[in-house]
Amino acid sequence: MDTIALSIVSTHKDLDITVDSTLKFHCHISKTVKKAAGLTNNLLNSTLCHDKDFMITLFKSHIRPLLEFSSIVWNTGYLGNQKLLESTQRRWTKQIAGMTDLNYADRLQTLNLYSI
User: Fold this and answer.
1) Which domain of life is it from (predicted)?
2) Are 20 and 30 in contact (CB under 8 A)?
3) What is the pTM of this model?
4) Rounded to the nearest 5°, which phi and psi values hold at 81?
5) If you average pLDDT over every residue of the chain, what do you get?
6) Is 83 helix (H, G, I), strand (E, B) or coil?
7) What pLDDT score was predicted for residue 1?
8) What distance in Å separates the CA atoms of residue 72 and residue 87, rounded to the nearest whole number?
């Protein structure tokens, strides 16, 4: 462009979504899960009340928005990415009082949540 060479990059961030040179969003999802996992650790370590209603409100207002931000753009249906995203929700629901013995599908149904 006007005698200025454009550099080749492996990833690019636009509107806070990272896309790689093959137009995949694996890097974005990894960063998102890392951010959500850090927040999950902080909230679980600082929360004494693990009551169902309180924990679901906390999850839906603080963690779920991180995981779902611009998902209409990057949700490509890769199973590995889905498992990564689900890991945060799986961990959170297991910490809710009375849910530790249930499997993940039963926890989602009991808590009226849906899979990411």
Assistant:
1) Eukaryota
2) no
3) 0.78
4) -65, -40
5) 86
6) helix
7) 56
8) 20
CB atoms within 10 A of CB 42: 11
CA distances from 54 to 59, 89, 90 (A): 9, 15, 17
Closest CA to 75 of 17, 8, 34, 10: 17
Q: Alpha carbon of 112 to those of 15, 60, 107, 108: distances in Å? A: 31, 12, 8, 6
CA distances from 58 to 24, 51, 63, 85 (A): 31, 11, 8, 17
Give the C-alpha distances (Å, rounded to integers) separating 74 from 30, 83, 102.
12, 15, 31
Confidence (pLDDT) at 72: 63
CA distances from 96 to 1, 63, 80, 107, 108 (A): 56, 15, 25, 9, 11
